[in-house]
Amino acid sequence: EAAVTQSPRNKVAVTGGKVTLSCNQTNNHNNMYWYRQDTGHGLRLIHYSYGAGSTEKGDIPDGYKASRPSQENFSLILELATPSQTSVYFCASGGLGGRTGQLYFGEGSKLTVL
Amino acid sequence: AQKVTQTQTSISVVEKTTVTMDCVYETRDSSYFLFWYKQTASGEIVFLIRQDSYKKENATVGHYSLNFQKPKSSIGLIITATQIEDSAVYFCAMREGVSGSWQLIFGSGTQLTVMP
Question: How open is the CA angle B62-B71-B18, to the nearest 5 degrees?
């Protein structure tokens, strides 16, 4: 069974603080993604990666960094968190070949920045 | 850039009826891939169904089917014989990029409520 796990599941941070959201996948997928979900906006792509050591900017990368140290792990980093970054964040992995485009999502991480 | 638009914010239907959710897309690619995903009340997001643009037949999986109208850049999701557990948010998505370097662009979602 494909599995993507995120941590923490819930996080309360203070404005200006550093936040790291972690994601681990056991699907052996090359591709990993970070999305944020806000009411009225659906899922918006923040950063993504095509393999260990690579990261790419998505549609809304400002204020976020990403790190892909290994095939299994992909982190989203907020160096200076702001209240506008309060949201639910989803990590996903995706493979190649016949299942290209099929994403496996984590459970989501709810971030509140006070 | 590619764009995916879902104009229906929410839909309510009575159980066992058929519902159609709309989605239109913009792309300059001659070949492309379209998807529908479902997000349950618990927050879980799962893949439902896929349509490849070069295929003339509409995709069908279980009681989900697609109404692919290429000239209109439209990919509607049809759920027949709806059940209470179909209540969820449904997202339309399009694949952007080529080969292994791809990402999905999502619409804003449609909240479906199935009533007894």
Answer: 30
* Interface of chain A toward chain B, CB-CB under 8 angstroms: 30-31, 33, 35, 40-45, 48, 50, 58-59, 88, 90, 92, 94, 96, 100-105, 107-108
The model's pLDDT over A69-106, given as tens digits with 9 standing for 90+, comes to 999 999 999 999 999 999 999 999 998 766 677 899 99
Q: Please, what is the end-to-end C-alpha distance for chain B in angstroms?
A: 41
The 10 Å Cβ neighbour count of residue A63 is 13
Q: How far is the CA of A85 from the CAs of A34, A75, B16, B35, in angstroms?
A: 13, 16, 40, 27
Q: Please provide the DSSP assignment of A14-30 as one string.
A: -TT--EEEEEEE-S--S
Closest alpha carbon within chain A to B90 = A42
A32: its two tokens:
């990993």
To the nearest whole angstrom, how far is the Cα of B25 from the nearest Cα of chain A? 15
Percentage of residues of chain B with pLDDT beyond 70: 99
